[in-house]
Amino acid sequence: MPEEPLSELDRVIDIETKWLRMSAELAGESFAPAVDLLSSCRGRIVVCGMGKSGHVARKIAATMTSTGTPAIFLHAAEGVHGDLGILQRGDAALVLSKSGETSEVAMLLPGFRRLEIPVVAMVAQTDSALGRFADVVLPLPDYKEACPFDLVPTASSTAMMALGDALAIALLKKSKFSPDDFAQVHPGGTLGRKLLTRVADLMVGPPLPAIDEEVPLSEAIALMTEHRGVCFTTSPEGALEGIFVYGDLGRLMKTRKDVLRLRLRDVLIKDPAVAEPTELASVAVARMEKRGTTNLVVVDADRRPVGVVYLHDVLRAGIR
Q1: Is the pLDDT score of 71 beyond 70?
Q2: What is the mean pLDDT of residues 272-286?
Q3: What is the pTM of this model?
Q4: CA distance 140 to 97
Q5: In 147-259, where does DSSP find H-type helix?
Q6: Is the N end or the C end of the chain the one with fewer CB atoms within 10 Å?
Q7: At what angle do helices 31-39 and 155-174 cross, to 10 degrees?
């Protein structure tokens, strides 16, 4: 790679890193008040900006929405041409503008005041129209952009993005938003499936491959063949006692020549790993991988078998 592009890589990353550090320092005093203001709103957080700040604002709104904080994006130009009607009393606004004097943003401010919507501003010029209007200001550094002409928003938009992420995560923690909550708003994604799918959703049975431990091993093998390579025994009370799977049979055949003369009791694996119906299927997958098996018997609170969960079924459901 030519030296010049590499030098630009270092220069841009260095400038943007400085922006991030300075932004964190500048926002230190006002960050907690900003989180308190946004978390106390009864409606939605309206995130707005213009140009590059608008693109960042859209992403911040999406991040907040997916982490438990209802938010919408308002394009500043569209806002002054009718979309301001989306605002409601009880909302709060997060407004992004490096200069704080963007005309379209300035024209939104009377609408915020009319509906008594409190405003948090990300702005470099704190004495600007937006800076003076805002209830809480998250100051941006007065420092050069990564653009060599100091014109194109580069480092400033990166800083806005980072501050927006910090706000979203602080609000997430303040609302005690959990991984299960995350899954509820991401049901179609891989992570959603991983966080929502329980063992009970994928387990098989009845009938179950239960068999008496006194039977000849040949009978156990026949039952295993019908049930995808697994059979088990239970106590008189119905609790799981032992298990035998194809993998055990393969290992046994390497060391014993009299396999068919054995009884199941001679080869049972006692106290096997199990799964519970309510645990995450992803947890069961991890246990199967650790144990080197392709199935787990699913048991209830009294350790009585209620089903079998197979690795292939879980992977086919998109759970890793």
Answers
A1: yes
A2: 92
A3: 0.65
A4: 10
A5: 155-174, 179-184, 190-196, 199-202, 217-226, 246-255
A6: N
A7: 60
Cβ contact 181:191 at 8 Å: no
Quickly tell me which residue has 């709060």 as its tokens.
Answer: 92
Q: Where in the chain is the domain with CATH 3.40.50.10490?
A: 3-177
Helix (H, G, I), strand (E, B) or coil at 13: helix
Q: Which helix (H) or strand (E) holds 48?
A: strand 45-49
Top pLDDT among 68 and 54 is at: 54
Q: Would you list the DSSP string of 52-118? A: HHHHHHHHHHHHHHHTT--EEEEEHHHHTTTGGGG--TT-EEEEE-SSS--HHHHHHHHHHHHTT--
Burial call 112-147: b when 16+ CB within 10 Å, e when fewer: beeeebebbbbbbbbebbbbebbebbbbbbeeebbe
Which amino acid makes up residue 7? S
Residue 319 region, left (φ>0) first, then alpha (ψ -120 to 50), else beta? beta
Residues of the chain with CATH 3.10.580.10: 199-316
CATH architecture of 3-177: 3-Layer(aba) Sandwich (3.40)
Topology adopted by domain 199-316:
CBS-domain (3.10.580)
* Residue at token pair 């709104």: 61
Phi first, then psi, for residue 135 (nearest 5°) are -75, -35
